[in-house]
Amino acid sequence: MNSVILRAGARLQVVLLLVFSAYMLLRGHNAPGGGFIGGLIAATGFVVYAIACGTADARKALRFDPGSIAGAGLGIALVAGLLAALWGDALFTGQWLFIGATETEKGLPLSTVLVFDIGVYLVVLGAILSITFALEEAV
Amino acid sequence: MDTSTPSRWITPAGLLPVVIAGSLFVWFAQMLPVIAAGDTLRFVWEWVPSLGVNVSFYIDGLSLTFALLITGIGALVMLYSARYLAGHVHQARFSLYLTSFMLAMIGLVISDNLLALFVFWELTTITSYLLIGFSHDTFKARRSALQALMMTGVGGLALLAGIILIGTTAGTFEMSEINAMPGVLTESVMYLPIALLVLAGAFTKSAQMPFHFWLPNAMAAPTPVSAYLHSATMVKAGVYLMARTHPSLAGTDFWLWTLTIAGAITMVFASVMALRQTDLKLALAYTTLMALGALTLLLGNESGYTITAAATFLIVHSLYKAALFLVVGILDAQTGTRDANSLFGLARALPITAIAAAIAAFSMAGFPPFLGFIGKELKYAGAIAVASEPIFVAGALLISSALMVAIAGIVSFRPFWSKSGKPIEGVKEAPWPMLVGPVVLAILGAFFGIFPETLATTLVNPTVAAIIGSAEPAKELKLWAGVNLPLFLSIATFVLGFSIYYYKQKLREILIDMTTRGPSFDNGWDRLMAGIASGSKALTRNIQTGVLYHYMVVTFGTALAVLAVTLWFRSTGIPKMGVPQVELWDWLVFLLVLLGAILTLVTNSRITAIAGLGVVGIGMAMIFILYSAPDVAITQLLVETLVVVLFAAAALKLPSLTPEPMRKRWLDVIISVGLGVVTTVILLKVTTGSIDRELTTFFETASYPQAFGQNIVNVILVDFRALDTFGEIAVVLIAAISIFALLKSKPEEDKP
Amino acid sequence: MEQLLSILIGILVASAVYLMLARNLLRFLFGLILLSNAANLTIFVAGRLTPGAPPLVPDGLDAPIGVVANALPQALVLTAIVIGFGLFAFALILAFRAYQSLGTLNTDDMRVAEPKEPHS
Known about the structure:
By secondary structure, chain A is mainly α.
């Protein structure tokens, strides 16, 4: 598919979809979204980019090997689960830290749960991209 | 192996087993005073308490007798093997197998828990398999090993079933507790299956007819193994089992007759077959069978005479048989042959071996003043006292004992003293480590014969007490019991035995003629194995056709049948449905998905089919949106997009679809429509029933206070059920890796 | 609506099974997708349908007010969709590679592992 408009559009939408996917990932705990959805959105962006500009460009734009991204994601999710052990809880128990919390304000919540969701995001993104890229290159 | 040149035999691999066996022997021997005083020892460790499996050891006369035989003969045999196998490439392996076997055998005889006993039982089977197949480069060894494994393995499974039945019937697996409850098994309705299963285990292990044929074949093992496993110890495991369960299983007509008949037939058959052999080792193997038959026969009864006879004969036989096997091993090693027809007059060349052989043979033939004589007298006294058929039993004993006399002559008189052939030149006496075993064992037989009291008070009486509950009925062991019926029977035995020895050549020819014409168990075994193999092959070919369509038909057909039958029998009628509340939107979505499905179903165009699938997917997403599942809907839409992208990339490189007309696929129509209907009916039943929202309520109320999340679905995924999610993303990653590997392999490499 | 969806699932299952029983591997894949859709929908419907009330906790409250949609089947279906995608992708690539190697998509002719017996 050799269309200048599609290629230019694909570059733009990959940025937009990446930002949007990060937004979906971060809000996932309180509103529809989360790691699965975020990862799928980001993957869709790169898949469209690969269709428009070829997988070689898409791989370059991604910077990292999708297989490595997925592996790193699984590792991050595992670490997030194991962290619970530091506090003596059962594996995969969420741990929370509220920065700047006051009596009335919740403050900025940080949690191992979010780390876990980031892991999910990376696995979904990496796995789907490694499948699609490999397939595109094989046919 | 060449034992005539002094090679280095003092190696850790050779001597470590001797040390282990010797120390264990000493350890067991120091328990003798306690046991001889009539006490028992018991040690318990809980292992799997929830299953009632304990590691519990129980030592009474019976187990101590076995333990001493195992470790004592074990130490001698291992010393013998250290020299016999010196320099063998796999000597260390051999030592490992033999030591493992010894430990398993000890565990077997001192376990109180029946499940632990079973584990050790199987361990002896496995180590025996490894030892028979030690010379694994010969076909015969491999076949014999496998045969022994199959026979004793099948028996082991039967024993396990029997043990489980015993455990459920008696409420415990501890043998000492079961034996303390008289009648708990014999009066239960499960008695017959229990007895059959336990005896199946005992008979295969102790090679009773018709499961006997593996034992002569097991002689493919190195001679020390034959001496140790296949005469003195492992094959006695079945005997041990019958003795151990005697208090709770014996005393019924079934037990009495089964053991008497099986024992008597095995005994007579084996002694006749022994006469037929010219290979000395095989002849000994058949006499072992005879001994096992005699022990089985004696254990069928409950009288003090028979049990005393069994306990005594058990010890006698282990001593002389191990000695004789080791003697045959020496003959084999020093002359290179075990053929009775080429070994003559070796007494001058092998003086010590000859004397040991002679003493052991006197015990085997039952001459006074050796222990064998006492054993034989007791057997006759026991036979006269048996509850079943004294004449039948005594007759069987007479024939086999006479044959023993003849075979003792063939094995240990002729090779050393006979002048009917020329002795082989240049034969040297065996080195001392190989002589210790036969000499010590032979002398013990003579010693106990002259001083029977030492054996009676320490081992025989406690063993009898363990088998029938009290030592009271134990009969005295004495050389001279006066002029009585057993004495006349003994004299008759010698007369008959000598005549058989005299006419052995003629008799052997007749026997060879008979046995080659008759059916052979060994060939039957081969046919059975071949039948099983071809049967499995046919079964596999029919089930595993390699055609996907067959697998799918069977899978879906089974699913349909199971679901339909369950629905039919468990059904409580058609569910009551209220007037369905269906909005316009619902109808539109329904029609949309229906359209997509039908499109995919009927089209012969790939693009149309992919489009149809996309329509179905989008319809699904709409259902999720309509019914309050925004997360699911978004996921569904995104995945649907990716499915279409992948399909478009791959499917268009594949050939276009060919029509498969429906009128030729009536079976497929029936299965698919049936499954569809069944699914709908089940779902209608499910949705009209009540629903348990306990979990959902928990997630709803705990989501924010405990996990600080307002999106309950996401909280379930990443917090409450995070471990599941972790497993799922791991699966996704594995799928990606597999696909990557598939695509990167070259198609040319796997062209058929 | 549960009743209507139950019928729809039945239709999807029937179509999926019929397609999976076809000789062509591509049709088998179509059936696989339909079947996983039907399975997801089954889980969803079995948890009952609630229109217009997604399982979200409103701001400032500890639990949702009134009846909201069942969150548990939603979580199950969400992961099932992603896993189903993995399965589908794997099956598709397997079919693709099988065609490259064997030159056919007809499953009756794919006999590498269990070749036809010469005499049968």
